[in-house]
């Protein structure tokens, strides 16, 4: 690449003037053979769990430049067949939950995106790590911090990367607010409000089954307010208080939270006041207040477009499908070691789990729980 640049400079030409494609052809030795490769080699991903979010990710990946869907792991043969047709996936890259460990012998898959119910994330992540493949795991990374720590340790021991599907960390309007906060544009931040919730339907779904969900609204949607409070304020909380309201104990059984209000205290003096619920719609809002300005976003974490304004004016970055940007950026993190604006690694996922554990403890005890 450097040689090509020097050549172009010497020739007084630019890549633009020559109308070269963005691909950067290179020659490299691979197993003793001279291979034609490109610097922009894609991250070849298999999706595990072909449900509703897995389908959304797969559709979004059609527009990716650096990530490519090449494989599937599913317990349902009819889904595998349909995905093979839709995404042109060869049979040799298709696995089920009994066979996916064999993925270790498949050189055509770099990473597995775990998009199964929360309660299975640990088992599946450990399985993928053992097979020597990078893991992208959906949020919540696990159902408690103990599991999360095991996952971080297992991936580290296996020498693979563990990333968490925090798509908002790559969203342009969110990033604009985070950069403003990093630049001090809001001054001293003292308050954040995060409202995350929707009315959940079908009472038989896994999200309301403790074994598979690990909790209720907090695990599923409240985590957006926790994570948002952290990236909007730019600090790690030092204490938690929380209060639970349960109006429907039949639908929301023991361990499955319906509504929790929680507060997070930050070392700089800021407090986050948040609501997590499965019983109210139209709750997708962030508000950040500092002594020099503010940011408000609504919707703040839905699939977009994310809308909002700051004291400087409206947030007007164009909407790009979140999962397309996320997967391209994650490819750059895994393949090139790119550092994201806000981390998306296993340690980041673990931080949210530590806070969730503390919130549940605060609900149970009624006491302020220290995080330090
Ligand atoms: P879903 O029910 O639509 O899909 C889950 C998939 O897991 C299904 O294909 C199901 O067959 C499979 N599965 C494998 N083993 C299973 C078992 N033992 N029991 C039940 N299902 C099993 O759920 P979803 O909405 O796609 O959620 C999957 C994960 O993605 C969850 O962790 C969720 O929190 C996360 N998610 C993230 C976002 C986001 O914006 N980042 C959005 C939605 C869901």
Structure description:
With 372 residues, this protein is of the alpha/beta class. It folds into two domains: 43-167, NAD(P)-binding Rossmann-like Domain (Rossmann fold), CATH 3.40.50; 168-317 and 345-370, 2-Layer Sandwich (Dihydrodipicolinate Reductase, domain 2). The protein contains eleven helices and 17 strands. It has helices at residues 2-10, 15-18, 52-61, 77-87, 121-130, 145-158, 172-182, 210-213, 217-233, 322-336, 346-365, and strands at residues 25-30, 33-38, 43-48, 67-73, 94-95, 111-114, 134-137, 162-164, 189-197, 239-245, 259-265, 271-277, 283-290, 294-297, 308-310, 313-314, 369-370. The chain has a nine-stranded mixed beta sheet. A six-stranded parallel beta sheet has the order 5-4-3-6-7-8, with helices on both faces. The longest helix has 20 residues, at 346-365. The termini are far apart. The model is unreliable at 1-38 (pLDDT under 50). The protein binds nicotinamide-adenine-dinucleotide. Nicotinamide-adenine-dinucleotide is lined by residues 49-54, 75, 115-118, 120, 138-139, 165, 167, 206, 212, 220.
